[in-house]
């Protein structure tokens, strides 16, 4: 996590998570313990005002998809592919929380989507030739944003689990 920038202005912390999927996913089902750990980690980060940025490459499925879907902002490379095969799983619950209902249903019907389709469905926030480089740029941008700007930006990217009952992001 990063703190205040060198110029001393107030900033919000962030963390970037890089997920690199392989050509196949041997374990697409996610253990309940892993899902609980991801939920607890995200709740802890959000309660501290930490924005989670995910940089994704390769085939993203199972636990990687769970982690990616839980992030506030997802940057994917053009060759990335998202695969979801376990509708009743923790991944399914997270995707339904992260995506609008029609988009979650479209992803469930297709089972797998490329980067462009993920962007159209809202699973990807943006597609970049180098997710790691773009993630670093975006993280730098996050550091210099005032708290109010961060709150409004994250409200646009948060759904479901990370929004309070009053409709405001926990920052």
Describe this protein with a few key phrases.
disordered C terminus, 171 residues, single chain, four-stranded parallel sheet, globular, alpha/beta
Write the layout of secondary structure elements.
Layout: E1 14-20, H1 32-47, E2 51-57, E3 59-60, H2 62-70, E4 73-76, E5 81-83, H3 90-98, H4 101-110, E6 112-114, H5 115-121, E7 126-127, H6 131-143, H7 147-157
Parallel strand pairs: 1-2, 2-4, 3-5, 4-7
Antiparallel strand pairs: 5-6
**What would you call the shape?**
globular
Class per helix and strand makeup: alpha/beta
- Spatial ordering of strands, largest sheet: 1-2-4-7
Question: What are the low-pLDDT stretches, counting only 5+ consecutive residues below 50?
Answer: 1-11, 160-171
Radius of gyration based on Cα positions:
15 Å
Mean pLDDT: 76
Approximate helicity band: 40-55%
What's the helix count? Answer: 7
Query: How widely separated are the two ends?
Result: 15 Å
Structure in a nutshell:
The protein contains 7 helices and 7 strands; from the N terminus they run βαββαββααβαβαα.
What can you tell me about this protein's structure?
The protein is of the alpha/beta class. 44% of the residues lie in helices and 16% in strands. The chain contains seven helices and seven strands. A four-stranded parallel β-sheet has the order 1-2-4-7, with helices on both faces. Strands 3-5-6 form a three-stranded mixed β-sheet. Strand 1, helix 1 and strand 2 (51-57) form a beta-alpha-beta unit. Helix 3 (90-98) crosses helix 4. It is globular. The two termini are 15 Å apart. Residues 1-11 and 160-171 have low confidence and may be disordered.
